[in-house]
């Protein structure tokens, strides 16, 4: 199973990139999409519906766990409940983390989610995880082993600086990442491309591809329509497909 994690600074369009990656890979591979962003936007971008999230199950489990028979393996029961919220689609399945319960964190939920991913290893060829913006998701170590970490940046220097920090934090936390690449999104012209190339070289970051600003994608996003409606001929779709081909997982 190949695990692809999509990360980046807020506003770079990482969820749209993750959705297009899922759409493209799921044409040939059995794919699980995991929405690890509390805002839960990946499902909408994929035209999928989410009935319950991991956060919902966690809250329900906290309410009912003391009512379970004493002999019940509570962790096994929780894991079973989590398995039941994987939404099965024609081309891909999806699991959403949702928001953490109350003021707490996802520490326990993430531990169980890691176990679920490991358990599902034989069921899927590719897992694509759309993370929340920023760096916190790495510190929670939702995934121990990452085959491909794609950091999405816009045309700003801050986006590349975030990519650099994500790379350094992954190393500090000893997260096993086989490959780290930067994807430049919303690129408008050759001037943007040259600027990004130069900044990436300066920071020793590997740019795997450029996704042009796409009016059709922007309109779908603005209208809240799924990116499954994006034409194969659109510049953004073709660019993401080229990136997926470069990843050599098809």
From TrEMBL:
<feature type="domain" description="CobQ/CobB/MinD/ParA nucleotide binding">
    <location>
        <begin position="4"/>
        <end position="227"/>
    </location>
</feature>
<dbReference type="InterPro" id="IPR050625">
    <property type="entry name" value="ParA/MinD_ATPase"/>
</dbReference>
<dbReference type="InterPro" id="IPR027417">
    <property type="entry name" value="P-loop_NTPase"/>
</dbReference>
<dbReference type="GO" id="GO:0051782">
    <property type="term" value="P:negative regulation of cell division"/>
</dbReference>
<dbReference type="GO" id="GO:0016887">
    <property type="term" value="F:ATP hydrolysis activity"/>
</dbReference>
<dbReference type="GO" id="GO:0009898">
    <property type="term" value="C:cytoplasmic side of plasma membrane"/>
</dbReference>
<dbReference type="InterPro" id="IPR014433">
    <property type="entry name" value="CooC"/>
</dbReference>
<dbReference type="Pfam" id="PF01656">
    <property type="entry name" value="CbiA"/>
</dbReference>
<protein>
    <submittedName>
        <fullName>ATP-binding protein</fullName>
    </submittedName>
</protein>
<keyword id="KW-0067">ATP-binding</keyword>
<dbReference type="GO" id="GO:0005829">
    <property type="term" value="C:cytosol"/>
</dbReference>
<dbReference type="InterPro" id="IPR002586">
    <property type="entry name" value="CobQ/CobB/MinD/ParA_Nub-bd_dom"/>
</dbReference>
<keyword id="KW-0547">Nucleotide-binding</keyword>
<dbReference type="GO" id="GO:0005524">
    <property type="term" value="F:ATP binding"/>
</dbReference>
